[in-house]
Amino acid sequence: MRYAIEQYDKHGFLKAPKWLWLGWIFLAKAWVVFVVAGASRDSGSKILSIVYPDHTMLYLGLAMGLPSMVLMWLFSLRNPDRAWLNRVVSWGGGITLATSIAQLIQTLYHIYLDNGAFSWANGATMLLLMWFVLYLTKSRSVSDCLQTPPDV
């Protein structure tokens, strides 16, 4: 047995590692900013203008974060009776990898727009995205938690 019994949910599915959840939240960072701006009523538009001065980038970030939000939601709904949902969740690794690479390309485009000028935000984003891509490709626990158990 590769994993402890506590790492399985009540339906026999392997729980997602904390790093995968944090990576999904990072990929959905535009949604986090959007919710925080909405929750802070009076200063919400100011927060959005500071983090996303160009509204097009906010909309692009919301679109790129949508697969992560949907995967987090579907991952919590897994059940042996929902074979179609388990199949969609099993595609989560490829979807997450594609989303991570797309956000990495978007960050490179931001650097291109800044004429190669260094900014800590772009540097940290690129570093975290590259680490997350490596984690997705190398982690056995990520690939195991996204697979449907054979007896389901």
From TrEMBL:
Pfam families: DUF2919. InterPro entries: DUF2919. Coiled coil: none annotated. The keyword Membrane applies. Keywords: Membrane, Transmembrane, Transmembrane helix. The chain crosses the membrane at residues 20-37, 57-76, 88-112, 118-137. This is DUF2919 domain-containing protein. It comes from Vibrio paucivorans.
